[in-house]
Amino acid sequence: MTTSTLQQNLRWRYAVKKFDDQKVVSENDLETILDAGNLTASSFGLQPYRFVVVKDQSLQEKLVPVSWNQNQVAEASHVIVIAIRTNLDHDYMSSYVAMMESQRDMPKGSLDPYLDMILGTVGKMDDEMIGAWATKQAYIALGSMLAEAADLRIDSCPMEGFLPDQYDQILGLADHQLRSTLVLPIGYRAEDDKHQHYKKVRKPLDEMVVRVGS
Ligand SMILES: Cc1cc2nc3c(=O)[nH]c(=O)nc-3n(C[C@H](O)[C@H](O)[C@H](O)COP(=O)(O)O)c2cc1C
Questions:
Q1: What is the reported pLDDT for 63?
Q2: Closest protein CA for atom 6 of ligand 1
Q3: pLDDT tens digits, 101-114
Q4: Structural domain boundaries in the chain
Q5: Which phi and psi (to 5°) does residue 39 adopt?
Q6: C-alpha 17 to ligand 1 mean position (Å)
Q7: Which of 37, 67, 87, 202 satisfies CB 3.0 to 4.6 Å to 177 for a cystine?
């Protein structure tokens, strides 16, 4: 196996249980992490999610009781909430395709066949299916941001231990046509977070990988 800086940083990363509440992630580093989320692959490129950044002590404290009392959301420098769009309708798809035409300097309407293809698949899903499909995409963005944070030696804790309806209410997400799906507090590990000393537990690679064929 070749070693890479990313691989070393992924070994350094762990799900932080206690952040140092005095340390703040710089705006530049925050943007790099968000940009990694934005650069993530998504089905048809539709990016059916948004990244909600919470940097407000009183709001962060309100999130603790609706996060299974996990204090990371209060002690972290920032909390990134990955929220799926609730308005993945015809207008959303056509404005995405129009953006694609514009960013690639293509004539208006030239991607109509692509739009038809998207509408032919996503457009046929019911609300529940669209929600499940958008949620899958959100997890990929979570993975990119986790990796980017680690690569910057910024700590994080991926979290699905929270109450989405309560988050939506506290953060006013319905007004943005968003529904919270995943939570990613970022910051710097506290010196006394004992979890940083636990050995990383993973299956051996040869047990994880199934090679088929010669
Ligand atoms: C989708 C997802 C949800 C998770 N939810 C929580 C959570 O709510 N609270 C928490 O402390 N850790 C949470 N974790 C962290 C996992 O427990 C952790 O990644 C796993 O035990 C492996 O440990 P490591 O990441 O420290 O290597 C979550 C991880 C993922 C990927």
A1: 98
A2: 159
A3: 999 999 999 999 99
A4: 14-87+133-192
A5: -85, 0
A6: 10
A7: 87
Q: Please indicate whether residue 106, judged by its CB atom, sits closer than 6 Å to ligand 1.
A: no
Is the pLDDT score of 140 beyond 90? yes
181: amino acid identity, one letter: T
The model's pTM: 0.97
**Distances in Å between the alpha carbon of 17 and those of 7, 71, 72, 147, 188?**
22, 8, 6, 18, 11
> What is the arithmetic mean of pLDDT over 91-98?
96
CA distances in angstroms from 180 to 53, 62, 171, listed in the order given:
12, 15, 9
What's residue 47's pLDDT?
97
